[in-house]
Design goal:
With 182 residues, the protein is an alpha/beta fold. It has one domain (3-172): 3-Layer(aba) Sandwich (Rossmann fold), CATH 3.40.50.880. 37% of the residues lie in helices and 23% in strands. Helix 1 packs parallel to helix 6 (155-167). The relative contact order is 0.18.
Length: 182
């Protein structure tokens, strides 16, 4: 069973986070929502509060098979400013471990050079923060071990793609069918 470490920062986009988490859990993936804030309760950009499973831990993050970064503002800025997260993101990239981000959060991967030479997408207006990525306006882009999504409207698709990478097309297809997703 795969595991995904989800970094939830104050001001995140709630639906992007929870839609991806929901798809992963339906597919049997172990998901840990880690608070990047001061407490387990994290309030998003639309005033919805999510209770994280744990507080951020560099050690726990390193043990995961994948890292997922939800977008939203100022949540993305908090992720980009977190030095420990930056260290682990660079390690994952060097090791070819799965990195996923949606909306504004691909800019965090861009900051650390993880998108250089890769196709990537993001929320309109963040293209200049993708480093040396080859920008596309596709909804979800998988290039190697990196998955990026354009925005909240593609959160289910990003979750299904991440599930496909971690658990295979059959598992992702079963979840897609169960939720009646075309």
């Amino acid at each position: 069973m795969s595991s995904v470490y989800v970094c939830v920062a104050p001001g995140l986009e709630e639906v992007e986070c929870l839609a991806v988490v929901d798809m992963l859990r339906r597919g049997g993936v172990r998901v840990e929502l880690a608070s990047m804030g001061e407490e387990l309760f994290v309030t998003g950009s639309h005033n919805i509060t999510i209770k994280a499973d744990s507080m951020w831990s560099e050690e726990a993050c390193r043990k995961a098979d994948a890292i997922f970064l939800p977008g939203g503002m100022p949540g993305t800025k908090h992720l980009a400013d977190h030095e420990g997260l930056g260290r682990v993101i660079r390690e994952f990239d060097r090791e070819g471990k799965v990195l996923a981000a949606i909306c504004a959060a691909p800019s965090v991967l861009g900051k650390y050079g993880c998108l250089d030479g890769r196709r990537a997408t993001c929320y309109p207006g963040f293209e200049d923060q993708l480093g040396k990525a080859v920008h596309t306006s596709d909804g979800v882009v998988c290039d190697g071990h990196v998955v990026t999504g354009r925005g909240v409207g593609f959160a289910v698709d990003e979750g299904l793609e991440l599930l496909r990478i971690l658990e295979g097309a059959e598992v992702s297809g079963r979840v897609r069918e169960a939720i009646q997703h075309p």
